[in-house]
Specification:
alpha+beta, 4-stranded mixed sheet, 3-stranded antiparallel sheet
Length: about 150
């Protein structure tokens, strides 16, 4: 039979304790990447709370963990347009949107991270890797507010 040394026993106990903490905290993580156009605002996510009876519930809390190095990250409240939620087609729910806007002359990589905490206490961690690029001719002519709406 193999016996663990005291240091190994302590490390093993810490791993078990940390694993249990993650489950108790109800934390989920999402990693993704997106391309954005230099100088234009881009929606990274929309978060709301729609109840089973198709009424709006308490909004989640959004906390910026890591700000971008080459732009700005904004959280704005607004209304989702009717029809955006298939099970509640007439509901115009209140929601919070996360928007990233790179500096106008920057091209390259950036990254942001934020947490969304629901009214029930569930926490979602989001890490978004962003590639800032020049606008194509079609993007330059597109609606400037297309990605700024909820």
């Amino acid at each position: 039979m193999h016996h663990l040394q005291p240091a190994a026993t302590f490390a093993f106990a810490c791993i078990l304790a940390l694993s249990g903490t993650a489950v108790l905290a109800q934390t989920n993580s999402a990693y993704r990447s997106t391309d954005v156009v230099a100088g234009k605002s881009h929606r990274l996510g929309v978060y709301g709370n729609v109840q089973k009876d198709c009424t709006s519930g308490p909004l989640p809390t959004v906390r910026v963990v890591t700000s971008p190095k080459h732009g700005e990250l904004n959280v704005r409240s607004g209304k989702l347009k009717a029809g955006r939620i298939s099970r509640c087609p007439k509901l115009e729910a209140t929601a919070q949107g996360i928007f990233y806007k790179p500096n106008p002359t920057y091209k390259g990589a950036d990254e942001v991270s934020y947490e969304v905490k629901s009214a029930s206490g569930k926490v979602e961690s989001h890490i978004v890797r962003i590639t800032v690029k020049d606008a194509t001719p079609a993007e330059a002519k597109s609606n400037p507010d297309a990605d700024t709406e909820m």
